[in-house]
């Protein structure tokens, strides 16, 4: 009798395990199918796994992905800005390019990426699509647009170098080692690419946990209702700022000359004015070596470096101009510094000239939109008003038109 009961328990346990697995499998299939911009709430997009985030925007023909343009870079390539925050459909360069072109555009850019991470992400995700999952298998891209943003790319590069470079390791070896380390697929990478619902559920749990802890610590029932309603509004695409950091209002002092109502703007991003000459040289070399690695891996000659100026470079500002920066040693956002239009302009010209020379020497197309953006900025504002670090809808649209006309 005892033996029969034991067999029954084991059978029931196995039945539960198989049932749970099948339910997760079905949920995973459904999740992958609906995790595109057409069905998936914008507010939850940042909860998608890395691989699904590339396939989230409606910027490609799912049935014909043999030929696509890979877009690399940081938050500018991803399309962060007011259009994204306001729930607009065409929030990125890729959206406007796809709408006005017959090519497929896949975005491998991620917020906060430096040059090494940008290149690594393309290679790693290209490998990941060939895992046994429901994601479209990708070949290597025949065309690549690398979005270089002067506002923080060099700061990201020098911080990574200061943090992780070995003693007496030259920049070329450092870049090669870091990319090779980044593109290795761990068992966790393989699991989350096959079952992307797991990292999604983990992030949702984290959000709910934060909300629950806040509710527990609030005595006013009206505040509880406000917390919940704000999160619901966020899910349905409304622009609601949640968990906004405390800021010093005294740092909101920037004003654009000849724009009377554009004032009290937050500290801006600059043309790497925080870096000294040596740091700038190393950061640029990291970018150059990353581009060489990309070219060698992709085996394509059709690579464009798209240069995006910082907000300080785009307009003429009242001085002194307050700017934010990433500390090149510890990676923290440092105290607010000030600069001038002249100093920033000199840095911008220096960086652009260096990249232009490198591009000519190594057969990359260099598309510098700085002068075009400066000209457009005299007609209309291309950033903000919510997010002054990135282009707004008009900014992305104008730059995408410029790309189509010049590539």
Write out key terms for the chains shown:
5-stranded parallel sheet; globular; 407 residues; alpha/beta; two-stranded antiparallel sheet; 7 strands
Structure write-up:
With 407 residues, the chain is of the alpha/beta class. Helix content is 50%, strand content 8%. The strands form two sheets. The protein has a five-stranded parallel β-sheet with strand order 2-1-3-4-7, with helices on both faces. A two-stranded antiparallel ribbon has the order 5-6. The radius of gyration is 23 Å and the shape is globular. The mean pLDDT is 89.
Outline the secondary-structure elements.
Layout: H1 2-34, H2 50-55, E1 68-72, H3 75-78, H4 82-85, H5 93-99, E2 104-107, H6 115-128, E3 143-149, H7 153-164, H8 171-182, H9 187-194, H10 197-216, H11 221-235, H12 277-298, E4 303-308, H13 311-314, E5 321-323, E6 337-339, H14 341-362, E7 365-368, H15 370-377, H16 393-406
Parallel strand pairs: 1-2, 1-3, 3-4, 4-7
Antiparallel strand pairs: 5-6
Helix pairs in contact: 5-16, 6-8, 6-12, 7-12, 8-12, 12-14
Strand order of the largest sheet: 2-1-3-4-7
SS-based class? alpha/beta
Q: Tell me, what's the shape?
A: globular
Distance between the termini: 79 Å
Q: Specify the helix fraction band.
A: 40-55%
Low-confidence stretches: none
User: Tally the helices: what do you get?
Assistant: 16
Mean of pLDDT: 89
N to C succession of SSEs? HHEHHHEHEHHHHHHEHEEHEHH
- How many strand elements? 7
Strand content is 5-15%
What does the largest sheet look like?
Answer: 5 strands, parallel
Radius of gyration: 23 Å
């Amino acid at each position: 009798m005892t033996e029969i009961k034991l067999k029954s328990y084991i059978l029931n346990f196995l039945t539960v395990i198989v049932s749970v697995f099948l339910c997760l499998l079905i949920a995973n299939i459904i999740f992958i199918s609906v995790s595109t911009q057409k069905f998936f709430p914008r507010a939850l997009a940042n909860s998608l796994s890395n691989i699904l985030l590339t396939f989230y925007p409606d910027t490609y023909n799912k049935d014909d992905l043999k030929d696509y343009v890979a877009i690399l870079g940081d938050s500018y390539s991803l399309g962060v800005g007011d259009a994204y925050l306001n729930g607009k459909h065409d929030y990125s360069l890729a959206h406007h390019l796809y709408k006005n072109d017959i090519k497929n555009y896949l975005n491998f850019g991620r917020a906060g990426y430096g040059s090494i991470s940008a290149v690594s992400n393309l290679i790693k995700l290209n490998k990941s699509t060939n895992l046994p999952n429901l994601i479209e298998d990708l070949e290597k891209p025949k065309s690549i647009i690398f979005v270089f943003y002067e506002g923080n790319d060099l700061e990201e590069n020098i911080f990574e170098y200061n943090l992780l470079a070995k003693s007496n390791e030259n920049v070329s070896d450092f870049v090669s080692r870091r990319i090779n380390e980044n593109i290795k697929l761990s068992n966790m990478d393989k699991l989350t690419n096959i079952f992307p619902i797991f990292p999604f559920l983990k992030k949702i749990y984290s959000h709910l946990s934060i909300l629950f802890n806040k509710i527990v610590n609030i005595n006013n029932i009206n505040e509880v209702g406000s917390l919940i309603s704000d999160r619901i509004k966020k899910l349905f695409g409304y622009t609601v700022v949640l968990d906004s950091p405390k800021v010093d209002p005294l740092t909101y002092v920037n004003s654009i000359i000849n724009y009377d109502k554009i004032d009290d703007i937050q500290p801006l991003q600059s043309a790497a004015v925080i870096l000294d000459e040596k740091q700038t040289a190393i950061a640029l070399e990291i970018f150059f070596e990353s581009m060489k690695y990309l070219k060698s891996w992709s085996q394509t000659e059709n690579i464009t470096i798209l240069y995006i100026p910082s907000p300080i470079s785009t307009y003429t500002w009242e001085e002194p101009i307050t700017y934010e920066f990433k500390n090149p040693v510890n990676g923290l956002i440092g105290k607010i510094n000030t600069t001038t239009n002249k100093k920033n302009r000199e840095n911008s010209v220096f960086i652009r000239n260096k990249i232009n020379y490198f591009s000519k020497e190594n057969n990359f197309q260099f598309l510098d939109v700085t002068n075009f953006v400066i000209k457009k900025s005299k007609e209309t504002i291309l950033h903000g008003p919510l997010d002054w670090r990135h282009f707004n809808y008009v900014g992305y649209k104008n730059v995408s038109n410029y790309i189509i006309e010049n590539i």
